[in-house]
Amino acid sequence: MEAHGGGLRRVLVLAFCVAGIWSAYIYQGVLQENVSTKRFGPRQERFEHLAFLNLAQNVVCLIWSFIMIKMWSGGNSGGAPWWTYWSAGITNTIGPAMGIEALKYISYPAQVLAKSSKMIPVMLMGTLVYGIRYTLPEYLCTFLVAGGVSTFALLKTSSKTISKLAHPNAPLGYGLCFLNLAFDGFTNATQDSLKARYPKTSAWDIMLGMNLWGTIYNMIYMFGWPHASGFEAVRFCQQHPEAAWDIFLYCCCGAVGQNFIFLTISQFGSLANTTITTTRKFVSIVISSLLSGNPLSTKQWGCVFMVFSGLSYQIYLKWQKLQRLQKKRKAM
């Protein structure tokens, strides 16, 4: 009976994590698309300074992580020193800025799909630089994802979707997304290295260090000279409070989503988190298509299913590998 109660508790916690991640990041996606495509005020002005979203999110997540560390570890966690995040902070500033900037040139579903192909640069770098050999199923996953994304990019986008973009330019938009992935790869590798060197580093320590440097770099970029774009962004928000409110909610969604990701990883592992976030991306595309007026053709939906079939198969391969490792440990 006690085991049954414990199992039910875990199911409820997992359902809570799924609901939290989905609601936070799906709503954040809606807000991101809204800010990047909507026209504000009687003059129908666009919010062109999308990099400001990263600065705002850095500030909110910095404050949030500082509060969490003070609440849960008394401010002395023994993790990696704040200055060690400076290099990862550079790539973590440039990468997301490129991803958001891509929304000027391609639709939100196209951006989500392109950013779902993170395995492609990872496997490419692994093969060319480190000489890593991958299995046939792993190459199949990559083929499905790469084939789906490239075919989606080549198919004609509807005129309704193009009319919402600030500066339609598919090659530039996809190029920015793949550069975002490349920078993310370096960021993740640096975070893993810091975690290995400082084992007591918590998720909150990483969040604090990354957002501290992100705030510094973005403040320099956005406000470092008299006519920098940050001043225009602040002026736009003052003139259009609706845009400012959307940006604030966007930042809050990011901070709340991080909480649920950390909870999921700590309770159920990274594989469960990968599964939840991958399905969330698919739901984001569906919602964007149905609610935000980004219609996809039958062929484009085929590409979406192709990409997520590859991602689902990758999750299944990771699950198989995890099962084999657990069996080996039990045998020992």
TrEMBL record:
Signal peptide range: none
KW Endoplasmic reticulum (keyword) present: yes
Keyword list, A-Z: Antiport, Endoplasmic reticulum, Membrane, Transmembrane, Transmembrane helix, Transport
Keyword Transmembrane helix on entry: yes
Transmembrane segments: 12-30, 51-71, 136-155, 203-223
Localization: Endoplasmic reticulum membrane
Name of the protein in question: Solute carrier family 35 member B1
Species this chain originates from: Cajanus cajan
